[in-house]
Amino acid sequence: MKNNSGKRIGIFGFGCVGQGLHDVLQDNTHLEVVKICVRDKEKLRTLPSNRFTYDPQELLQDETIDLFAELISDPEEAFFIVRQALKAGKIIVSANKKMVSENLPELVELQKQYGGTLLYEAAVCGSIPILRTLEAYYGNEQLQEVSGILNGSSNYILTKLDAEGLSYDDALQQAQELGFAEADPTLDVGGYDAMHKISLIAAHAFGALPAPSDILRAGIQHIAKRDVSLAQALGARIRLVASAKLDIKHKLLVQVLPTFVFPESELYYVEAEFNGVQLKAKYAGDQFLKGRGAGSHPTGSAVWADISAALAGYKYTYQKLDRAAVQLEEDAALKLYLRTSKPTLLPELAWLELTSFGVDAQAEQLVGTIKRKDLLQHLQALEAADAFVAEIPTYVTVEELVKASVPLLEEISGY
């Protein structure tokens, strides 16, 4: 490690992550915070006003600054800042997963062209060093699957539903009060946050650059009590699982879906705001990483880890991006559980096979198999029908589902 003494940093953003990084930096006095750039001049903050600037160029044009930390929520503004820093050949770290995932090809090219460095570990799994692990240990290893719980907010909500029987609204309110979920939770509970994260993982694990429109994504916002109870009756838990895996044709399946997870999976035991990531490698076998995926200090510490690594000369190598591109698989089928309280609004899905069960005056429950591409094109219509969809393992039979649902029909009225 090179000595970081005398290094100067400019920080963009002083929200949850920015404040967490600032707290971490108090124990690392060799790095001087020049100023923190924020947008709102009227907002009350925990530091004196002279520590802040409201003009990004005051930092970006300061030749004495050695590196930047971009920690703002606006992806377009974040991209402007990161792009300008890279064009100046600077070091910059970012926690903005949407910005990085949607612009990764250009960001990689800017690093090559101008010699700057961009690290974004904090954008993916909070305190879990998944990107560093993929780069350092699996850069030349053939991975078969990377899957995990990548959003601490939705996992906190699902844990409360499963363990305490809370309503979705009550669990969401708790997550917001604890700072795990935003006032507008759509990005978290809708699966968008995890979608951007799994796209970054796919780039480092498989050399793929899937567009958001190519990723099969559904969230947990329409989950109901009977869904949770059905999973419990089967001995499972519902978790929002993001995955990227190769099929037998060596094509890549990328998705974010609520999933019935059973005790044989490590993800079954990932609770509250924690994240967990499973890696399946051809030769190295299986690995599992777990850590806090939400919160000011866990994410701030991940930013600090990137800063320390960048100052020591670390860069992403993107080894797998430079190889032959992996094609995305669209025709593969998956087994799906679907429940809606508005069955008349359901779109006409091209089911390969379908069984209806648990039908009553309040809801209809279905289980069947469908091609990924056919489900992908109807996701918006399913959301409009308040449909909750979840992947279910192929070994779970229709008979087991029917048996598990029978006691629920008279006992459960839904949320």
Verbal overview:
The structure is a single chain. This protein has helices at 16-25, 56-60, 75-87, 97-114, 122-125, 130-138, 152-164, 168-177, 186-189, 192-206, 225-233, 296-311, 372-376, 379-384, 398-411; strands at residues 7-12, 31-37, 52-53, 67-70, 91-94, 117-119, 143-149, 216-217, 237-246, 252-261, 274-281, 285-292, 333-340, 351-357, 364-371, 388-391. The chain contains 15 helices and 16 strands. The radius of gyration is 22 Å and the shape is globular. Helix 4 packs parallel to helix 10 (192-206) and helix 7 (152-164) crosses helix 8. The strands form 3 sheets. Strands 3-2-1-4-5-6 form a 6-stranded parallel sheet, sandwiched between helices. Strands 8-10-9-7-11-12 form a 6-stranded mixed sheet. Strands 14-15-13-16 form a 4-stranded antiparallel sheet. The chain folds into 2 domains: 7-120, NAD(P)-binding Rossmann-like Domain (Rossmann fold, 3-Layer(aba) Sandwich), CATH 3.40.50.720; 135-294 and 326-409, Dihydrodipicolinate Reductase, domain 2. By secondary structure, it is of the alpha/beta class. The model has no long low-confidence stretch (mean pLDDT 92).
